[in-house]
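Submission sheet (multi-component)
Chains listed below:
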Amino acid sequence: MNIVITGASKGIGYAIAEIFAANGHHLVLTSKTPAALETAVAALSKEFPAVQIESMPADLSLQKEVTAFANWCLEKTEPTILINNAGYFLPGKLQDEAAGQLQDQLNTNLFSAYHLTRALLPSMLTRKSGHIFNICSIASLDAYEHGGAYSISKFALLGFSKNLRLELKDKGIKVTAVFPGAVFTNSWAGSGVDPKRIMESSDIAKMIYAATQLSAQAVVEDIVMRPQLGDL
Ligand code: NAP
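Outcome: structure written.
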């Protein structure tokens, strides 16, 4: 299968790339910082020398870079699975956060997925098959302290995901929304939180991989995951 993963240079995206590479799939990867993506691809190629891995850096908060990545992607392959994972967490309170914070969070956490999905969908629709994962968050489900604009952007990504699922259910294309609680990645480095208190990136990757193993007539619509001890 051809697996397109955004935000693949580190954290959850990297762990997803690893599990699909371990199972021999062709990877098409992107993330924002060129050097970080290069390092990630070198590490994956070393670990899985037989796997075909292609990559192109792009700032997916900018629609023209999404379009450039999508066009490059379609030249390289017919996407089987798209994992909209790129995103970042800016803590904030709605009253106090910086002007423009909501726009920034929407650009990266929502519009990246919206524009990329729309660009790659025609290829999936022609083949009447595909699987799209949107990495939402438990911040898509409920308000929480310091969620601010981030939480709004993740609620919006859930709205995107639900509407996509409705539109594609009779087109042979699956849609899965993933709702992780706290996962120890860069976002948590330096926070003082014990890595053993929260989840590992590979936990999320394993559930996503499992959701791709079902019959054509079954879909996992939602994957909600939390640390065993609950939210922080
Ligand atoms: P991470 O380790 O910081 O990795 C984020 C990835 O997204 C990096 O590859 C980064 O690229 C890429 N990215 C960020 N902004 C981008 C942009 N404008 N254009 C293209 N790529 C961009 O984060 P993570 O914790 O793995 O988070 C991955 C996803 O899971 C995010 O959507 C996040 O909201 C969600 N999530 C995380 C947690 C958690 O506790 N960690 C919980 C719930 C949901 P570069 O580094 O190369 O710039």
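Remark: The pocket of NAP is lined by residues 7-13, 31-33, 36-37, 59-61, 85-89, 108, 135, 137, 180, 182-183, 185-187 (CB under 6 Å).
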